[in-house]
Each structure stands twice: as structure tokens, then as C-alpha cells.
Amino acid sequence: MNIENTKAQMRKGVLEFCILSVLKEKDAYTSEILDTLKNAKLLVVEGTVYPLLTRLKNDGLLSYRWEESTSGPPRKYYGLTDEGQFFLTELNSTWTELSDAVNIITIQNK
């Protein structure tokens, strides 16, 4: 069994939750989202994030707007919709339950 593949699948499983969480407080453009994820040690590449942002937008969880930049082309800023806020609240609840359950199991078996 390939441990790197398993770790990558675990990261991929929480990426949607993390992206929505990044956008909880303020709108951000893709580079800001990537920087936040990388600063948190969540290894992710642009090729993974762009399609996910598009899917989240198509699902009605994100909206976007174009904003002029003083240092280059316009930037696409993403933000949570009302539906995205609700979805994130539900994910937070599920994450807490799942995290608690995993902690109980892994701590019991030490």
C-alpha cells in the first residue's frame, strides 16, 4: 500500500471544507486561497484548486466578482453565498463529530 497516495486522498477529502473556511471571513482570489492553504501546511496545487472552485461556484456555494488590480490583470475574487455559508456550517458540525470519533478511536487504541 502506498502511504503517499493515502495521505493525498485524506487531504483531498478535506480540501473543499478548507476552501470554504478560508472564504468564511472575507472574499479572496485564488492566489490568496492557495497561500492560506500552503501556510497551513496543506499541500495543494493550482491544478487542483481551480476545478474545485468552479465546481463550488456551479453548485451555488460560491460567487465571484472581477476586481481591477494595480499590479496586473483583473483578479477573480470568490466569496461564500448564503447557501455556501449554510453548507459550511453543516460541514463544521460534521467535522467536529468525525474528529471527535476518530480521536476517541485512535486514543483508545494507543
Automatic annotation (TrEMBL):
Residues 19-89 form the Transcription regulator PadR N-terminal domain. CDD domains: HTH_ARSR (cd00090). GO terms for biological process: regulation of DNA-templated transcription. InterPro entries: ArsR-like_HTH, Metal_resp_DNA-bind_regulator, Tscrpt_reg_PadR_N, WH-like_DNA-bd_sf, WH_DNA-bd_sf. This is PadR family transcriptional regulator. The lineage of its organism: Bacteria, Pseudomonadati, Bacteroidota, Flavobacteriia, Flavobacteriales.
